Amino acid sequence: MGVGFQSLELCSTSVGQAFFCLLLCIPWGSSCPRSCQCTERAGAKAVLCSSRHLEEIPKDIPRDAVFLKLDANSITRIPGNAFRHLSHLQEIDLSRNAIEKIDGAAFRGVAAGLRSLDLSGNRIRSIPKEALLALNAKLRLANNPWHCECALQEVLWEARLDPDSVRDITCHTAPRDEYVGKPLLQVLDAGVNFCSVRQRSTDVAVLVAMFGWFAMVIVYVVCYVRHNREDSCKHGRQPRALPAAPGRADTASTAL
């Protein structure tokens, strides 16, 4: 009986140690999203979520992910701090989605180490320049329905754009119809400056507002002066009773 008890205790201890070792071996911080596939490439983790009908960026991406492919999905928006916990990311592929809106803080937390960001083939018309100018990554922005304006011009001048795709950044809409359908780089090379156009528009608006204010002041002054003149004329038309001379009044009384 004692031997059997000792054998049972030893067996239980061995099972407990094995279970504890199994817990230690589980990569708790590196679980893979159910809709994705995680692989190792040269010791770096790649999270592959291409063509998975995703409508938003998964929130359970492993913290040690280095390569993230989210292309060919139905993602419509990149919210602020979407990749904040993914400080090891070097490449993000968001091409061929339906992205229309990108928050100014969308790439906060990955700006330092990110080397490549692909946003081509989406529905992006405009983008906050602070979302991209803080990045050192090579950017792909081609094949989007861009509205050519000052913010996009500043991104083109200051961000690191992929030279192979920069000529595919085309003006879908623009302040003038003659720029529509043309590559933004070609329009800028022709001497167009969207930032100066916006400044001129602002100056014109300020001048119009100032002119309107002065016109209101002038109209008020004219009406005030005219009103005072009319009051003066009314008072001038009323007959005033002249006081009788004292000597004549006494003479008339004596005669009666």
Automatic annotation (TrEMBL):
It is a single-pass membrane protein. The chain crosses the membrane at residues 204-225. The keyword Transmembrane applies. Residues 233-256 are annotated as: Disordered. Residues 31-67 form the LRRNT domain. GO terms for cellular component: plasma membrane. This is Leucine-rich repeat-containing protein 3. Belongs to the LRRC3 family. Residues 1-31 form the signal peptide. The lineage of its organism: Eukaryota, Metazoa, Chordata, Craniata, Vertebrata. It is found in: Membrane. InterPro entries: Leu-rich_rpt, Leu-rich_rpt_typical-subtyp, LRR_dom_sf, LRR_TM_domain-containing, LRRNT. Keywords: Leucine-rich repeat, Membrane, Repeat, Signal, Transmembrane, Transmembrane helix. It comes from the Eukaryota. The keyword Signal applies. It comes from Malurus cyaneus samueli.
